[in-house]
Amino acid sequence: MFIKPFFHISAGVCPLVLEWLFIERLVISAVLGGLIGVEREMHSKPAGLRTHILICMGAAMFTMISLSVAENLGSSADVSRIAAGVVTGIGFLAAGSIFREERIHGLTTAADIWVIAAVGMAVGFGWYIQSILASILMFAIFSIKSDKNKWY
After folding, report:
1. Second label for 65, Cα 20 to 30 Å away, from 21, 44, 112, 121?
2. Where are the domains of the chain?
3. pTM over 0.90
4. How many CA atoms lie within 13 A of 127 on its CB side?
C-alpha cells in the first residue's frame, strides 16, 4: 500500500522516534522545495529558492500537525480540514504572484507554488516516492522551452 501511517502512539512508538520522523520529513521537504527553487532562481523568477523551501516545508508541517492532532484526538479530528486550509492559503499566495500589465504573466509561477505545496503535503503524509516523482516531473516541465513568438 502506498499510504504509510504517520503516527502510531497507541502502538507504543517512542516519542524520540516520532521526533526523528518529523525531522526526516521536514528535511526531505526542504530538499525537494530547494531543488525546484534553485531552478526557478536560475531563471530569475519571482518565487525562488527560499520561497519554495518555505512553502514546501510549511505544507509538510501543517500536514504532520493535522495527522498528529487526528492521532491524539481519535475520530473526532478531521485531517482534511487543515489540508483544505493549506490548499486555500496557497491559492491566495499563488494568486499574488500573477501580474497584469499589458499582458498577464506569472501563471507558471502561480501553478508552481501550488504544486510545490502539494509536494510538501505528500512528504508530510510520508509519500516520499510520489513527492520525489512529482518534483522530477516539475523539473522536467520547467526544462521545456517555449517559443514566445507562438501563441499555441
Report:
1. 112
2. 15-72+79-143
3. no
4. 16
